[in-house]
Specification:
The complex is a heterotrimer. By secondary structure, chain A is mainly α. Chain A is built from 12 helices and no strands. The chains are: A mainly alpha, B alpha/beta, C mainly alpha.
Chain lengths: 300, 271, 336
């Protein structure tokens, strides 16, 4: 199919199949997203980060753990683009591998949290009554402690490390999603088409999972993209406080914690992973902002 | 006003919604009739330059008592808005500021254009509320918009627009959000005040018989154009098929019909 | 009447939330791999001592009974003893919390003073270059890790430019000079009339407050802008403009007047979230507040202190939300 034929197939006002309608809608969203420079910048950085993390072994100039004690705290140079850290390890390679850990943590949290938040929220919103009240009370309780502090307490109880950090962040990340999904489900529940499906004899579970959940998705996707930025900051914060990934793991926050004493003389050593955190979290914020304008203009 | 054109930006470039409208109003009652989306409200608001900044307005001529509205500065426009021309919007539920009391909103309009103390403004507000036939105006002045009924809210709206004593009143569907019984009262009130104060009135509505009943002259709009201009008492002589179509759709007790006609549209009207 | 009932309902939900909070801290306290007995008596204590302390702490009882004991102690204001400082945790918290309040309040004031005007004008000039600029600033505030920003600020303003004092709450010069009244250093210094100490305190407060303030600035600006856009698109703004009011009056009295009450909730939430940011900021700036107490306790596995601080933060958070809710219901004429 030629480009123009594909375009007209996608932009058809009278799609012949559900598949064509769905692709057409996605394409139209993409056209609207494409004109947003900040959103596109976010998308480009996110994709670049993903590629860089996946290809870290190819891109890195040396293993992130190789030490050259004679070459400690070297400034950026041709051999070491970002310089070296307090044990003479190549910072560029460590930052690359650090991306794997940070993005890995973020993706794991998202995979764990999205289904929980969606299901809890959609059930509470659709069922209403007692179920709603109980589920939302539980949500409120988890929301009543700032995320980082609750995560700190959880990690302290488990034992510092990447796994505990992921569990702790996941435990504290689902409530906002549940809140959002519930608000959407409440609106959808009142619509005529849900009533119509109910009349055709669909079970309540079928209504929730086949009809309400998919419609909650756009706003939840936007929320999660924005939350990913918060998750990156919390993960890095845990690392910085010594409660996340443990040295010598090249996690960005942990790297800063290990080298923050050098800020006065070799300022680039702790600053470079800091910039990496900033970029990653900024990228997800910009991407989420752009997605919101396209998918869910009402949300703030 | 000659050859007014208004366009809004959309994803497919600028879309013109008003295609060249010309009209003039003196101290008379002019009705503008048309269906939703025919450009009535946009036309009315462009007289006061109250369209969103993204709108592109152009016209051969757009004057208010000799002042070129298109070229007028914000400051000059402010001297026209309220002071010389008031605008009554459709639904008082949305058109009144929900966190200010009725009295404060009327007093604010008064005080903006006539210098006076707060006390004088508050007293004037109560007086104005009484003029729009609100019983117990002192109490109503202290109420918030959500505590008012629709008819009451619209009276507050009218009082607010009368406060600076304007020469022209633009009423944009002032009654379509109200109950049928209240509608007549509000219209009678507007008519009464307009003729007593010798103001001009532009009444915008989708209700053709109602407009022809209250106004001297009627403009019929369709898809951003004026398709016909009539004296109100000559309505039955309407020539344009759209106007006749509209009249035909009305139920009547005198001439019973089996079934109400449905308007047949002709794309040629849009040219 | 309905207003009062809604108010009562939101007040009534608080105990449930607090109970949940206590349950969470209790569960965390019990799954902790560190043996609380060993933490108190040390690794080398004889077994009899360990057994006695275990009995004293009620750790041999079934969990529900332990929970009842825990709640009972909490109700008597007993959060246990800190292993690290060997003070009561409540005493420690009372000692460290005022410094955090001082820092967080300064930060929120900065965020409000800058964030609200930015948000209002960005909405008024929606889509303009200024709007995009504000958007970048606010997204930046939500993306920048506070501890990195703190370190960079220290590097630039303290080390390179030398215009700001270093870490801590005061210069060594004033150590022990200011009698403690409220616990908030600057206020205490002012109360005792030592204006040079006030000046020094403000100078020390500036950097951490700016860092923390930027953290909430993003959120406050973004919410203000969104609320204002909504308000500016409502019909009553057309009414206000058609009255011939000045642009400033339409913007600040009619549009902002409608969002101000909603912003109270946003501000309360932002203030509560500052407590999160404060943990990191205080660590970077060695600010002797609750956040630093929390991190030091964490590193020393001082669970009583950690859980006590967590609980207090949670209670403050719930309290702030309740306060915002009450304020919203009392101030907004639309909420009946």
């Amino acid at each position: 199919m030629s480009d123009s034929a594909l375009r007209s197939w996608l932009l058809s006002d009278t799609p012949d199949s559900r598949r064509q309608a769905a692709w057409g809608r996605a394409y139209r969203s993409w056209l609207r997203f494409r004109v947003n420079p900040l959103g596109m910048a976010g998308l480009v950085i996110v994709v670049a980060l993903l590629i860089a993390s996946l290809a870290a072994p190819l891109l890195a100039v040396q293993s992130p753990d190789v030490q050259h004690l004679t070459l400690r705290l070297a400034p950026p140079s041709a051999a070491h683009w970002f310089g070296t850290d307090e044990l003479g390890r190549d910072l560029y390679s460590r930052v690359l591998y650090g991306g794997r850990i940070t993005l890995g943590m973020v993706l794991t949290v998202v995979v764990l949290v999205t289904p929980i938040g969606l299901v809890v929220g959609a059930l509470a919103g659709y069922l209403g009554g007692m179920a709603d009240r109980i589920l939302m009370r539980i949500t409120d309780i988890f929301l009543s402690i700032p995320q980082l502090i609750l995560a700190l307490a959880f990690v302290a109880a488990l034992k510092p490390g990447v796994t505990s950090a992921v569990i702790a962040i996941a435990l504290t990340s689902w409530p906002p999603i549940a809140r959002l999904a519930r608000a959407d489900a409440l609106t959808i529940r009142g619509t005529d088409f849900v009533a119509a499906i109910g009349i055709t004899g669909a079970s309540r579970m079928r209504i929730v999972f086949r009809h309400i959940l998919p419609l909650c998705l756009p706003s939840v996707i936007v929320r999660i993209t924005l939350d990913m930025s918060g998750i990156i900051l919390t993960a890095a914060g845990l690392g910085f406080l010594g409660m996340g990934a443990q040295p010598p793991t090249p996690e960005w926050g942990t790297m800063i914690a290990a080298t923050r004493g050098y800020i006065l003389q070799q300022w680039w050593v702790p600053t470079i992973p800091g910039i990496a955190i900033l970029f990653a979290s900024l990228a997800f914020n910009l991407l989420g902002d752009g997605l919101r304008d396209v998918l869910d203009p009402k949300q703030t | 006003m000659r050859d007014l054109r208004v366009a809004f930006p959309t994803t497919r470039g600028m879309t013109e919604v008003v295609h060249g409208i010309s009209l003039s109003v003196g101290a008379e009652k002019l009705g503008i009739v048309g269906e939703s989306g025919s450009g009535k409200s946009v036309t009315a608001r462009s007289i006061l330059k109250l369209l969103p900044p993204s709108a592109r307005i152009s016209a051969e001529e757009l004057r208010f008592d000799g002042i070129d509205v298109l070229r007028a500065s914000e400051r000059e426009m402010r001297a026209i808005r309220g002071k010389r021309a008031g605008l009554i919007l459709q639904d008082p539920k949305f058109a009144l500021n929900p966190v200010m009391t009725a009295g404060a909103q009327v007093a604010e309009a008064w005080r903006t254009h006539r210098r006076g103390t707060r006390k004088e403004a508050a007293a004037a507000a109560v007086e104005l509320l009484a003029q729009v036939q609100i019983r117990d105006p002192g109490r109503v002045a202290g109420l918030y918009p959500h505590e008012l009924s629709g008819g009451m809210g619209q009276r507050v709206m009218i009082a607010m627009m009368l406060a600076p004593d304007p020469e022209l009143l633009i009423a944009d569907e002032p009654t379509s959000a109200l109950d049928a019984t209240v509608q007549a009262e509000i219209l009678r009130l507007i008519e009464d005040l307009v003729s007593r104060r010798g103001m001009g009135l532009i009444l915008i509505s989708h209700d053709l018989p109602l407009v022809s009943h209250f106004c001297d002259r009627v403009l019929v709009m369709y898809a951003g154009r004026v398709v016909e201009e009539l004296r109100a008492n000559e309505l039955s002589d309407a020539k344009h098929p759209y106007t006749r179509g509209l009249l035909n759709c009305l139920p009547s007790l005198l001439h019973r019909k089996q079934r109400l006609s449905v308007l047949a549209r002709d794309p040629a009207w849009e040219r | 009447m309905r207003r009062l009932r809604a108010l009562a309902a939101s007040v009534a939900s608080v105990p449930v939330t607090l109970f949940g909070l206590v349950l969470i801290t209790f569960v965390i306290g019990r799954v902790v791999p560190i043996d609380p007995v060993v933490a108190i008596v040390g690794d080398h204590a004889p077994p009899q001592v360990i057994a006695r302390v275990r009995l004293e702490l009620g750790l041999d009882r079934p969990l529900p009974v332990q929970f009842v004991i825990y709640v009972n102690r909490l109700l008597h204001g007993d959060l246990g003893r800190s292993v690290m400082t060997s003070h009561r945790v409540t005493t420690d918290i009372a000692h460290y919390f005022p410094a955090t309040i001082e820092l967080a309040t300064a930060a929120i004031l900065i965020a409000l003073a800058v964030g609200i005007p930015l948000g209002v004008f960005a909405a008024a000039k929606g889509g303009s270059r200024f709007d995009h600029f504000v958007r970048v600033i606010s997204v930046g505030g939500q993306s920048v890790p506070v501890f990195v920003l703190g370190m960079i600020f220290l590097l630039v303003f303290y080390v390179k430019l030398g215009i700001a004092p270093g870490t801590g709450q005061q210069d060594v010069l004033f150590e022990g000079m200011v009698p403690r009244v409220t616990g908030m250093h600057i206020i205490d210094a002012a109360l005792s009339g030592q204006w040079d100490a006030v000046q020094d305190g403000l100078a020390h407060l500036a950097l951490p407050a700016l860092v923390l303030g930027y953290f909430s600035l993003g959120y406050i600006t973004r919410m203000t802008r969104a609320y204002m856009l909504d308000a500016l698109h409502s019909e009553h703004i057309i009414t206000a403009r058609s009255k011939g009011l000045s642009a400033a009056r339409v913007l600040w009295v009619h549009a902002f007047g409608n969002v101000a009450v909603g912003l109270v909730t946003v501000i309360a939430l932002a203030y509560a979230n500052l407590l999160s940011g404060a943990v990191l900021t205080e660590t970077v700036f060695s600010w002797p507040g609750l956040g630093m107490y929390l991190t030091v306790s964490l590193l020393n596995a001082d669970m009583n202190a950690v859980l006590g601080a967590t609980l207090v933060v949670g209670v403050v958070y719930v309290g702030l939300n309740l306060l915002a809710d009450v304020a919203y219901r009392l101030l907004d004429p639309r909420v009946r």
